[in-house]
């Protein structure tokens, strides 16, 4: 994957490569150097990401007045529910939002007032969606980390 500003080998870091570097460092007892260009470009990217993050956090604190939002029971019924209802519902909402991101046919302008029923039991069938989501994410991470095809690994990591 060629880029105009960065050498192509900057994106080829994966778990086997990192493990190999760590093993060389442990066995030789001296630091393993990487290319100077990678350090310069990586440092520039990390600093820009860090500064944008800090800027967004400061803007949010300024807008909100350094107070946390207050939700009522009608706005967010899961937030006032006990364990395990709150945790199961929040995990299901991740799977539901990913589904809506991929298939936006069931969008709604107002998700309050019990539009999405709470997941109150471990035996609720909606927990299968949550389980499938996490199995899928683990499989993608495994393929990205340990695949011998670097093109697929880089595409999944991106």
Query: What share of the residues does DSSP label as strand, in percent?
Result: under 5%
Mean pLDDT: 79
Q: How many alpha or pi helices? A: 5
Q: Give the tally of structural domains.
A: 2
Tally of extended strands? Answer: 0
Could you name the ranges where pLDDT drops below 50 across 5 or more consecutive residues?
1-11
Shape: extended
N to C succession of SSEs: HHHHH
Share of helical residues? 55-70%
Q: Please give the largest β-sheet.
A: none
Please compute the radius of gyration using only Cα atoms: 22 Å
Classify the secondary structure makeup into a structural class: mainly alpha
Distance between the termini: 11 Å
């Amino acid at each position: 994957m060629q880029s105009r500003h960065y050498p192509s080998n900057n994106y080829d870091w994966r778990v086997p490569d990192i493990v190999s570097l760590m093993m060389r460092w442990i066995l030789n007892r001296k630091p393993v150097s990487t290319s100077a260009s990678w350090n310069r470009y990586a440092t520039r990217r990390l600093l820009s990401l860090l500064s944008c993050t800090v800027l967004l956090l400061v803007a949010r604190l300024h807008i909100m007045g350094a107070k946390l939002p207050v939700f009522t029971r009608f706005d967010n019924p899961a937030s006032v529910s006990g364990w395990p209802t709150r945790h199961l519902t929040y995990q299901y909402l991740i799977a539901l939002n990913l589904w809506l991101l991929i298939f936006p046919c069931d969008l709604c302008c107002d998700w309050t007032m019990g539009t999405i029923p709470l997941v109150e039991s471990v035996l609720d069938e909606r927990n299968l969606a949550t389980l499938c989501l996490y199995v899928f994410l683990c499989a993608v991470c495994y393929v990205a980390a340990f695949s011998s095809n670097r093109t697929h690994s880089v595409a999944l990591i991106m």
